[in-house]
Design goal:
The complex is a heterodimer of chains A (287) and B (355).
Chain A: E1 6-15, E2 18-28, E3 33-37, H1 44-51, E4 59-64, E5 67-68, H2 74-77, E6 80-83, H3 95-105, H4 113-119, H5 135-147, E7 153-157, H6 165-181, E8 184-189, H7 192-198, E9 201-206, E10 209-214, H8 216-223, E11 227-234, E12 237-244, H9 250-259, E13 263-268, H10 273-281
Parallel strand pairs in A: 3-8, 3-9, 6-7, 7-8
Antiparallel strand pairs in A: 1-2, 1-4, 4-5, 9-10, 11-12, 11-13
Chain B: H1 3-16, H2 21-40, E1 50-55, H3 60-67, E2 72-76, H4 79-87, E3 93-97, H5 101-106, E4 114-117, H6 123-141, H7 161-164, H8 166-192, H9 194-199, H10 205-230, H11 238-262, H12 266-288, H13 303-314, H14 323-354
Parallel strand pairs in B: 1-2, 1-3
Antiparallel strand pairs in B: 3-4
Helix pairs in contact in B: 1-10, 2-8, 2-10, 8-10, 8-11, 8-12, 8-13, 10-11, 11-13, 11-14, 13-14
The chains are: A alpha/beta (287), B mainly alpha (355).
């Protein structure tokens, strides 16, 4: 097993009396996407801010590529890419100028900013000033800026928040490509579908604490129901039957229904990540 | 700190400058103030008296006017052209000297002298040109003035108000470019979140603040120097003037950086500039009112940069006369560096928490 790109051991942070992050521990391997799933105010962004050097943990240790984040080392910063939740772009600069400027800060001499913009579908608007961009275009700019230095570690804070499905899908595709390239990705979201689709592993975070961390599949198996829903023709109508896969005789009943000429559909009834989150924390993801 | 990264941030700010209304306003203001104040009090629109001469025979009067300082001479070939120029107020006055005029005067023939005055010319210019013309004719005749004029000055000898207002305009150039542009540029980065975006790259807070300081220093230096040139106050020691202007710009920009670091948003930045305005502006009043006790001016920080500019640039003195002021100004600038460092780190933490 390779050394983790992100290694976090019991970090905590408080805003005055409010404990925002409590003893959080996890790691992210190169090429892995770890989804941080939790509602607003759960501590997702605070964790990212600590890991990107925007603020120091009050306790605990975190390492990026083996180096302590509190060292404020430009060498670490050179290898990370950050997509902030707020769209902090230079509005009076064009998309191309924005990327060229940040590429220069990373010391990249021959940055192919145009190619990066092409990846996120902004090549045709590259020379327009960012203030003329729509919300979705600005978000794509944010993503492209996070990619400009071909980072080894990517921090993406709610990268598709509030976007239309088409833009979201395009952004998810580029995130997957970055992980396939070998980048370790820490992705925060309160969108369970996004976490499910993108993440190799998912961490549920609530009130500053990680309450569960595993692959989405394992979480569903561990916390979900193993059952199927069978829909059958019933005269002029439709009837549904739920079969628990755990119980005795469930296989025989399922085989019987499968052979029935009235069978219409069979659906698995695995738990959603949101249902598991609610089961674990007693609150929803949109809270 | 990395000079390379500082340069990259500075280059970006210089490129973005012309797209910022505050940056443009900082450039325009000293020029606008110069025009307004010079128009009201000064000599920018009050040029030398303009005399036109049509000389039919190489008169000595023409040669003497050519040698005179303070009169703008235009030689014309045609009397009608001269008259139309005077009528259009392109000339304050016109003189037609026919061939043999000098000899006729010397022979005591009392020839006719055609002297045209523009109806729109300044009264002062008419008087100067009329008296000069009569005096020159009398000189040609070889006679002496019938009276001896004894000039007695009344009132305290001093500099004209147009000169004493120059520090005010220079002050505005320094405040707008050094303080306001520097401060608001930094505040804008904080408001837009781009300050944080830079901090997650290899650029460190010191690189960014150094770039902002350089931006203000550069702009304030150029504008202060341009203001001095425009007000004909650059003096002959331009190298020494450059030094005092650079020191002044450096301190102004450092004050702007402190305000920009401290201010969370544009509203607070404007409030700071407005609130501290009189404290910053106070020393300029002592140049307008020289009868006030001058030691009071030393209590204000910008005195230490305005006084060297006043003495070296405007009065044409030497830099050795103001070394104490320069040392104090540089001292204040350097002393502000750790203060800004402390405030910046506190503000960075606040920004991260707020974001």
């Amino acid at each position: 097993m390779t050394a983790p790109a992100i290694q976090v051991e019991s970090i905590s942070f408080n805003y005055g009396d409010i404990q925002a992050v409590k003893n959080v521990t996890f790691d992210v391997q190169p090429g892995e996407i770890l989804g941080f799933l939790g509602p607003n105010g759960a501590g997702k962004s605070t964790t990212i801010k600590m890991l990107t050097g925007q603020m120091a943990p009050k306790s605990g240790v975190a390492r990026i590529l083996g180096k302590d984040i509190t060292a404020d080392d430009p060498e670490i910063q050179a290898q990370i890419g950050v997509c902030f939740e707020e769209k902090n772009l230079y509005l009076n600069m064009s998309g191309l100028e924005n990327l060229d400027f940040f590429a220069s800060l990373f010391g990249i001499k021959d940055a192919d900013s145009m190619e990066v913009l092409r990846r996120v579908g902004l090549a045709d608007r590259a020379k327009d000033r960012v203030h003329s961009y729509s919300k979705g275009m600005r978000q794509r700019m944010m993503i492209s800026r996070a990619f400009i230095n071909k980072p080894t570690v990517l921090f993406l804070d709610e990268p598709t928040d509030g976007l239309d499905p088409v833009t979201s899908a395009a952004i998810r595709k580029t995130i997957k490509e970055e992980a396939e390239r070998g980048a370790a990705v820490l992705l925060t979201t309160h969108d369970m579908f996004e976490a499910d689709e993108l993440s190799d592993r998912v961490a549920f975070i609530n009130e500053g604490e990680i309450v569960a961390l595993d692959t989405a599949e394992n979480l569903k198996l561990k916390y979900g129901k193993r059952s199927v829903k069978v829909r059958l023709r019933d005269g002029d109508g439709v009837r549904e039957e739920h079969i628990e896969l755990e119980g005795d005789g469930s296989s025989a009943r399922l085989a019987e229904l499968a052979a029935s000429p009235d069978l219409m559909t069979i659906h698995t009834e695995e738990a959603t990540l949101e249902a598991i989150f609610i089961e674990l924390t007693g609150r929803g993801l949109e809270g | 700190m990395s000079p390379k990264l500082t340069w990259k941030v500075l280059r970006k700010d210089l490129a973005l400058g012309p797209r910022s209304p505050i940056f443009l306003w900082a450039i325009v203001l000293p020029f606008a103030l110069t025009l307004i104040l010079q128009f009201t009090f000064g000599s920018l629109f009050n040029p030398e008296p303009r005399l036109g001469i049509v000389d039919g025979g190489d008169s000595e009067i023409t040669a003497q006017v050519e040698d005179m300082k303070g009169i703008s001479l235009t030689l014309l070939d045609d009397a009608e052209e001269l008259k139309s120029n005077v009528e259009a107020n392109d000339l304050d006055a016109g003189l037609i000297l026919p061939a043999g005029f000098d000899q006729a005067v010397k022979d005591g023939e009392r020839p006719e002298l055609q002297f045209y005055i523009s109806g729109e010319s300044y009264a002062s210019n008419r008087i100067i040109l009329s008296v000069t013309a009569i005096d020159l004719v009398r000189g040609l005749e070889g006679s002496k003035a019938p009276v001896t004029v004894d000039v007695v000055s009344y009132g305290t000898a001093g500099l004209p108000i147009s000169v004493r207002l120059t520090p005010v305009i220079v002050f505005y150039a320094l405040v707008m470019a050094g303080i306001f542009v520097t401060g608001s540029n930094l505040v804008e980065e904080k408001e837009q979140g781009t300050f944080m975006a830079m901090l997650v790259t290899p650029a460190r807070i010191g690189d960014i603040l150094a770039a902002k300081w350089m931006l203000g220093t550069l702009l304030a230096s150029v504008l202060a120097a341009a203001t001095l040139v425009l007000n004909q106050a650059l003096g002959s020691n331009w190298l020494q003037v450059f030094v005092v202007v650079a020191v002044a710009a450096g301190l102004s920009s450092m004050i702007g950086l402190l305000m920009g670091t401290f201010a969370k948003d544009s509203t607070i930045m404007f409030g700071l500039v407005k609130g501290l305005g009189i404290f910053l502006f106070a020393p300029t009043l002592f140049y307008i009112f020289p009868q006030w006790p001058q030691w009071i001016a030393k209590l204000f920080p910008l005195y230490w940069i305005l006084e060297p500019i006043w003495r070296v640039s405007i009065l044409g003195g030497s830099i050795s006369e103001v070394w104490v002021e320069l040392v104090v100004a540089v001292g204040i600038t350097v002393a502000l560096v750790p203060v800004i460092g402390l405030v910046a780190r506190r503000v960075q933490a606040q920004m991260a928490s707020a974001g």
